[in-house]
Amino acid sequence: MATLVDGFGRTFPYLRLSLTEACNYRCSYCLPNGYQADGRPGFLTLEEVRRLVRGFAAVGMRKIRLTGGEPSLRKDLASIIAAVSAQPGVQKIALTTNGCLLPRHVRLWREAGLTALNVSLDSLQSARFAAITGHDRFDEVMEGIEIAQTLGFDAVKLNAVLLRGLNDDELPAWMDFLRGRDVSLRFIELMRTGDNQAYFERHHYRAEALEQQLVDAGWTLRPRAADAGPAREYAHPDFRGRIGIIAPYSKDFCAGCNRLRVTARGDLRLCLFGDFGIPLRALLQSDDDHDALVARIATQLGLKAAGHGLHQGNTGITPHLASIGG
Ligand code: SAM
Fold it and tell me: Is 321 in the pocket of ligand 1 (CB under 6 A)?
């Protein structure tokens, strides 16, 4: 089986595929005014997704993450999960979701073939959660997480974006939460995007500062698995849960990059903060274009840069993460 290798020796077993740019939340750091449709043609259809994943599986993609926008807004999500899971070579299908539709649909998604789940949960306090996300859905999200934990997923992970002055005092509450729960929490350092520069200046909180608090409380860094993503994961013998830190501004963050992205309109993005997209949609209209699709993916990978330009304030063409699939 072929494997994609770029000019810096990195391999790419992991595709993040956005299914929609639409989102029902108004997260203060992402889409504070809510999703605004722009009248452009729609998002990839089920058939296009199937052909796309078949192409990526042929070049060695083993893990597909479905994201957005909010992917659970797709009425055909269960059918998409089933179609992705049927592609030879695909071993893991994960979903990143804001979680408010979990109580209604998570069993169906699991039955369709979903193997892992990431749920965004920026605060353990329902009033703060509502203030950050613009949506008072804390109870549904918590209920959904509890249900998901009974369904035998390979992993149920929670994502919390670290926000100075908004949720940076919640580490003790998170530790209580993780004491008896077999869950991985990921703290994500706020990333600067095209639209959130003033917000970033106000609320950016360095992941290293939180990491120091963890070390001071007796948490230790776990050895990195060979196929691990960018999170540095900490554990503590008194806690069942684990805490990961995703620090995009840290040295060497890009050296371990193992993922490519495709937007909801079928553009390949080599980097979350890249300057260009590579249109694939024209090659998703017929099964006959499979070889051309594989060739385009393989040749374009040569253009992947060594790292993002966030340190220089260069956020590329990404106005907010909902536009690309964060
Ligand atoms: N709607 C889904 C969700 O809430 O998980 C999937 C898409 S959302 C863009 C994916 C993740 O990106 C969420 O955990 C969200 O909190 C995070 N995110 C969005 N904008 C971000 C930013 N500027 N910096 C860091 N994380 C961000």
Answer: yes
Mutate to test the pocket of ligand 1, among 96, 141, 158 (most ligand atoms within 8 A of CB): 96
Tens of pLDDT, residues 274-317: 888 899 999 999 999 999 999 999 888 777 777 877 777 777 77
14-323: what fold? TIM Barrel (3.20.20)
Write down the domain spans for the chain.
Answer: 14-323
Q: Whose CA is nearest to atom 10 of ligand 1?
A: 326
Q: Ligand 1 center to residue 288 CA distance, Å?
A: 35
292 CA → ligand 1 middle, Å: 32
- What is the C-alpha separation between 265 and 273, in angstroms, rounded? 17
Angle at 50 between CA 15 and CA 282, to 5 degrees: 90
pLDDT tens string 238-253: 999 999 999 888 877 8
Ligand 1 atom nearest the C-alpha of 23 is 1
Burial of 226 (0-12, 13-18, 19+ CB in 10 A): exposed
Helix (H, G, I), strand (E, B) or coil at 4: coil
Tokens of 96: 């990143």
Task: Give the pTM.
Answer: 0.94
